[in-house]
Amino acid sequence: MKDLIWSLVERVFPRLASAGLMLLLAAFVTPLIVGLYAWPMVVLTLYYSALDSAIRQVVVPSLASQEGLRLLRRYRNIASIAGSLAIAGILLALLLIFPADLHGQIYAMTPLLLVPVANSFAVKPLGFLQSRNAWAELAKMQLLASGVSLLLSVPALVLTRSLLGASLQVALVEVLFCWMVHRRARALGIEAATKGASSGAGYGREFGHASAYSIVGWLQGQADRLLIGGLSGTAALGSFSFATAIARNPGDAISASTGNVLRVKISVDQGLSAFEVRQRSDQLLMRGLALGMVLVLAIFIGVDAVLRPLLGNEWREPLDAALPAAISILPTIVSWSLSVVLLAVGRLAWGAPIKVIGIALAVPVALAATQSIELASWCVLAREVVILILLLVSCGKAAPLKSFALALASTTAFTIAAVLL
Length: 421
What we know:
The chain has 421 residues and is an all-alpha fold. It folds into 2 domains: 1-202, no CATH class; 204-421, no CATH class. It has 18 helices and no strands. Helix 12 (274-310) runs antiparallel to helix 14 (329-344). The two termini are 33 Å apart.
């Protein structure tokens, strides 16, 4: 449980800081401006899914072989350039599409260009620290990076009332965290530890499979935003992004941290049986779901007691949509970790067709958004439950049935509560 808590802290603070900045931003700007910010963030999430998420699957074992270390060097060079070029491309597209009076807001997002560079350069030392179970140290680094980023970005947001504050916060977290993990890894002897790496096989193929799987997952999650932005406009995209930011950002941190810890616990011992994988998965996922239920309850209370009185009527519908978005945290905690289970039992290929189904289900979500953002959010929740069930079946004998039952029961209970509110 201790590793899960520290891993959660390491993942949650950047997301909490971003969600807090989004709330503050909503007090100063309209949904249209938030929608502008959502476009480069869609590209950034593609970078995280296609590259960062995939390399994290193989970074720890890659440290043990020369071929693995070469893979990490190639990844660092390619990912940093490709990610920054992609963000530059979307910013240029926004400048060409939107009128001149919005160009200042678009230029304010240029700090995001630093994010892929800092993130990719942090991969090797981050994996080294994870292999040493330095979860507490990583959490403290993220806490410090998030705190410093808020100290600098909040004044920028208040003074400029623009997207500069939100963009600066995301960039500063990555840059500061990169500097700190490099510093700590050097102190622990990363160079000496990796110098004696064997000449064993690398993990390029596994990285490719994980990347393809993650890209399909990204399409599942971001097809909503792409279609909503295309069918209902940038203002609707801003409303949907706001709802998911305040509800899903902290929840995704729980999902990611649970998957990170589970990956390490399973990869430590090679050749685990399906029963052993299921046992370790259930043990960790039950704890992750307990944290998730506490978070969903806190979001319910925060939306009704704090945000509704604080924000104007312009944000009423996004706040209504935040409740089902928050509930979707619960099935997602389990489904995100099932990719680790599938990889452990050699069934990762089974997950790709299910992700494609998730992409197809983005169409009803987008169509629902033409009627209301809240209806679209309920459709997202329904889709997450369907995907969870399909992924669970794909796991075969390794399926963590206890955590699935708890996820389904808690989702049902919170759904009833949301309808009655």
